[in-house]
Amino acid sequence: MSGLWGLMTEEVRRPEQPAATLWERFDPQVLAALGSLELKARYLVEGFLTGLHRSPFHGFSVEFSEYREYYPGDDLRHLDWRVYARCDRLYVKQYTQETNVRFYLLCDASGSMAYRGRRAWESKLEVAKLLAAAFTWILLRQNDAAGMLTLHGLEDRPELVRPSQRPSQLGEILRRLARLEAAKDVRLATLLDYAGRLFHRRSIVLVFTDLLEDCAELEPAWKKLRFQGHECLVFQILDADEIEFPFDHPAVFEDLETGQRRRVRPAAVRDRYRERFERFMQEHRRLLEGLEIPLCLVRTDQSPWQTLGEFLSWRRRWL
Amino acid sequence: MNVAFYYPWIWWAALAVGVPIWLHLVRRREADLVLFSALRFLDDQPVARARPLWPRDLPLLLVRVLAVLLLVAAFAWPYLPQSQPPPEVVQSVVYVLDRTLSHQAQDGWQASLGQLVRAVDSLPAHAQAGIVLVDTVPRVLLDLDESPREARSRLENLKPGFGRGSYAAALTLAAAMLQKAIGEQHRIVLFVDNQANQWQEDAQTIPFLKNVSIESAVRPTPPVLPNVALFGPRAERLRTAQGSHVLCTAQLYRLGDVPQASVEWRVDGKLLKQEQVAFTGDTSLTLLSAEFDLPEDRWLTGEVVVTASPDALAADNRLFWALPPQRPGRVEAWVQSPYLLAALSPDVWENQWQITVGQVDQVASDTTVIRPHVMVAELGQLRSQQLRERLAEHISAGGGAVLFVDSVSGPAGLVLHQLGVASVTEVQPPPDHSRIGYRYASHPLVQWLSSGEWGDISTIRVQRYFDMDVPEASPLVFLEAGGAVLWEIVRTGRVFLMAMPVEATSWPRHPSWLGLLDGCMKLARPEETRLVEARPGEAVRWHLGEPAEERPLMLYGPDGRAGQVAAEGSSVMFTAPDEPGVYTLRHEASSDVVGMVVVNPVPSESQLQYVDAEKARAIYQQWVVTGPDERSPDRSRRLEGEASILSQRWWWGLLVTATVLLCVETVWLVLRSRP
Lengths: 319, 675
Prior knowledge:
A: disordered N terminus, B: Rossmann fold, 5 domains, eight-stranded mixed beta sheet, 30% strand
């Protein structure tokens, strides 16, 4: 059985599926076949949650949410004995955790984000939009307030969606994300600068970018955000072509942001390219480490579920 | 070589070569361009030009450019102008040659043919000539753009025709040809025999010849030529008390002062009867008949030949007929009258009708598996509802019925109501008006009964009959008093309704009684067409009744294959041969006869009565209309240019080469796009 339905039903029947195979079961073709961003995000999140078998968003605190079947290992304190007395079946009470954390999603729409390599299942911008949508979904389900800041190429002013816990917030953010397109004159430094000016209360800022900008230009903006007390988490979205430079034949390369063209013989420059690329990224990593900003690498040729997992584990630690 | 172009402005389209050049300069380059996001790490590499200066894939570019140029050149219509201007075409002439049967009279065909050949030969050098034949369907023997030198050989190979055609139709075709003619003068020259009935049938045609002069090359003929001819052949198998035999009839036509004629009857090539016919007074039509005892189980073909002197037209002296083998028809009878029981005795109709007389009280158990062709019943016998339903189903399925009205009440009334009888009244005619007095003469049944073979049916008396009002029926036989006693109702099936009890008439004691029953049953029997009569050259569509087999059908004549037959479902279509005769429709390489086609001349062609030249001129001059010439001044030059361009082979070569180049380009791209 294949496809979304197969993915879900199979997992329900075999809850002890090893996590390693879960990543392999991500099907980019299914994702591409889904029309809207909302469906894609839902596929991503629900497929991921079904695979994990146990939802991490249900705690046992204050507000009752739902019943679920008892699994060996569950705390016996949460068993509902009344239901057991009536139905002769073991059910566990679940509660929804209440938080008041405010999240901002920053989606870099610079020209380089439009790149899509031969092995990628989507362009970098599309992956960024999908992850942003999936995170919004998750955050709103656990009563966190989600907002978004984006910068369109031809507009001077940034587009801000103020954080909110309302269910309608998801639709609002998805609509804005769907409209977002890569533009040559959009810079991440400008976006971060706007964020520093517009975010007043302490928040968690999730940044989706490829970080293909000079480190020196970004440094003041990162520092400003951190000094204002915001927690930042950077999802660096890169294509395999950018990391490995696997091109074979001599060709003319045109820059997506500047339009500059260079005649390149890839075999001759591959090693030098990788070395310069690694050095460039090393600078960013060093800067972000110094500011205690976690960096999560997302490859467009790999499953985004891994990213979701890393984010959730980080979120748990942070809480 | 000095090449000129008919449409030189089309060379502007040659600018289209810019498209492939642009493609090779820009688009092909784009294919090798990589849009990349991390060019900052390659900033030490040499800068590339935004646009290349030299196109790539030069061979492919050349193929494309050449294809475009050849296409443009072809549509610019190049031609080789002659050093001297083409001679002006003075006149365009269309000769109309009458190829109908009547034109053979007194060797008129050969005379006109020779005259026409001489006329074409004597045409001036710069004249166009065409020839149209007056045939069953008018046709072009020589088109205007063909060389007049072709005319002689075609005319020499032309055989005389046996069909009949319309002068007006042939002139219409000639006028259509002249519409495209390039001559300054348009002429039509008639080589026709001026047969009176041929001119008269088109005399009321509205004018349709514009700016055309018509001349007639008709040699003078007397107003009437003596002629004998045969037409209207009919052959039928008859059943009388003495047995079965074949009755052949034909009409002998005499025109002019012909004292006598000799008639021969041949069947399957054997002479069976010879007789002399003496014409008296003004008799112009004589009914010939002959009876032969011939086998019933095979096809019969025959001919009637007449010889007489003087006779201007010998080609209409033979008449052909054919008769399919007798297939016994199945009859189911529900009768009680002794007259009917005797008449429907199986002994009487041996090999002709297989008659089953049903018992009314055994209807339930009598389940006839094979459906009868005809049901014969006295209405009073249809007491069982099952029997009435069977009759209704039989008629609605296309079967025939012969019904005798012996009662109008009860079950008989129901049947009459189903047959559409609106009202019925029983009538006793006065004794002095009780005989049969009037007949629907053109109905085949009445024609047959009135042929004299069966005696005088006006002696038959009727004591009592039922006066009926049947809106959808045709009355066939009436009493002197006026009431109809025999009706025909045609629905899906055909029904003959005898509106009198059998005991109340003297018909069963009349010699025509068996003939009446036979005729009614024959006409009521669903048609099984296996014989078609056609005119020479006529287009025939024939419904065979069953889907044609996969094997092709052919038409065979006495000299072998005579024509192609196109099959479409259960129908076949073909053109009847020109020459009269009996033709067989068979599957290729099979001896089984599917059907026969009898081709006989058209009777009106035998009426050798002529109009004089002045009267003919008065008729065809009515068809001519004059008016301003709408032709443009350079029309003739343009038409000539088009004709000469289209006839240049190398002009077509341009188109073919361009197409081949485009195909090469496509294959090239496909092969290159494969991994």
